[in-house]
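Worked problem 6 (solution included).
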Amino acid sequence: MTQTTVTVARATAVDVPAVANVLARAFQDDPVFAWSLPDPDRRRACLPAVFTAFTELYLPHGETYVTGDRAGAALWAPTNIDPFDGEPGEAFGAQVAELLEEDESQRFLTVGELFGEHHPVQPWAYLQLIGVEPDHQRRGLGSQLLAPVLARCDATGTPAYLEAGTVDNRRLYQRHGFEAIEEITLPDNGPPVWLMWREPAAT
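Solution. The predicted structure is:
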């Protein structure tokens, strides 16, 4: 792996298109999104708008990060904050319903419901999404995007949690202290997903 050092900063409203587009390209071949949107052309057409909705939902909570070259982005939720609660979550669901066909929307929402059913009870910082441009992967950008929040988790004694949809991603997270606590499988012969927990490191 070639290490590339980049700056990582909190995203602002002007970054929404860049964040959405890099996530769309990063997740084009992701097994979970491929299960939700099986047709690759539909997936390529819909994901930028889907990730725009995700980014606009998470941005107000101040834990959305982007690399200086806009080649990678990460959406975190702070401890005790669920961006999907209340009106914002309802608006997100309405956006998804408008963007996707009924069967696509149902599969997409099934993923969210299944993940929600398995969320731990105690407080934790939540990594909803992290993605790097395909031609910038394996250069350490994902690690650098994880660093700001994980350093704060260590300083404040806060656990972190995420779902990993590929073996490569699972390995990346394991290198940063996450452990797979459960493996679940999406319905209808869907792909496996690893639920991963990280205890704060001693400082």
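Discussion: Strands lie at 8-10, 64-67, 72-77, 125-132, 160-164, 179-185, 192-198.
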